[in-house]
Amino acid sequence: MGLGHVPQDPFRAQGTGAHVQGRQHRGTPAAGPVGATAGPTGPAGGDNPGVDRARQARGRWGEDQAARWYRAEGYEIVERNWRVPGGELDLIVRRGRQVAFVEVKTRATDAYGDPALAVTARKQQRLRRLAASWLAANDVHGVDVRFDVVAVLGVRVRVIEAAF
Questions:
Q1: Of 109, 108, 104, the residue nearest 93 (C-alpha)
Q2: What angle do CA 148, 151, 156 make, to 5 degrees?
Q3: Are 153 and 104 a contacting pair, CB within 8 Å?
Q4: For the stretch 94-127, what's the b/e string if a residue is b when 16 or more beta carbons lie within 10 angstroms of its beta carbon?
Q5: Cα separation of 64 and 67, whole Å?
Q6: 3-state helix, strand, coil in the chain (%, to 5)
Q7: Topology of domain 37-160, CATH
Q8: What is the pLDDT of residues 16-27, one digit of tens each?
Q9: Cβ-count burial of 77 within 10 angstroms (0-12 exposed, 13-18 middle, 19+ buried)?
Q10: CA angle, residues 147, 149, 155, in degrees to nearest 5
Q11: pLDDT tens for each residue of 42-90
Q12: By the 8 A CB rule, do 13 and 20 touch?
C-alpha cells in the first residue's frame, strides 16, 4: 500500500515498563460514538459542563501549539481533526515526501503522568489503522510515513518525532 515502514512496537518512555501504559480509569465514562452529542453526564466526561468545556479548550490549545510548531519547522498542515467512524487523527502534516500523523496529548498538570504515556499500544494500533485509511482515501502513495506524539504539559510543548 506504500506506507513504508510502520513500526509495530508500542512507544514507551525510557525506563518504563508496559504497566505504565495501562489505561487509567478516573471515574469518567468512556467516549461514545463519533458524532454523538454529550449530555451533562455524557461521554465528554463528567457532571460539570464547565470542566468539560475547559478540557476541550485546553485540548484545542494544545493542538494549536502543535500546529504552530510544525508550521515553524516548514511543514504544511494537511488536516486537523480528521474524523471517521473508527476515530480521529489530530494533525496530519507534510514536508516533501514525509507525512507525519500527529497525536496531541494535553494535560494541565502531571497528576496522571507524562501525557505521551497516554498513547497506549492500543491507541497506536488505532492510529496506524486511521493513517492507512487516510492514505487510501486521499490516494497518497510513495511517501514516508511517520507517527509523532506531541505532549503538552501546562504550557510546555514537547514534540516526539517518530514516537512509534
A1: 104
A2: 130
A3: no
A4: beeeebbbbbbbbbeeeeeebbbbbbbeebbebb
A5: 5
A6: 30, 25, 45
A7: Trna Endonuclease; Chain: A, domain 1 (3.40.1350)
A8: 554 444 444 444
A9: middle
A10: 155
A11: 444 567 788 899 999 999 999 999 999 999 999 999 999 999 999 999 9
A12: yes
SS3 164: coil
Domain boundaries, the chain: 37-160
- The grid coordinates of residue 15 equal 525506563
Give bridge partners of residue 153 from the DSSP assignment: 107, 156
Checking DSSP bridges between strand 98-107 and strand 144-153, what pairing results, if any?
Answer: parallel
Residues present in the chain in total: 164
Which amino acid is located at 130 in the chain? L
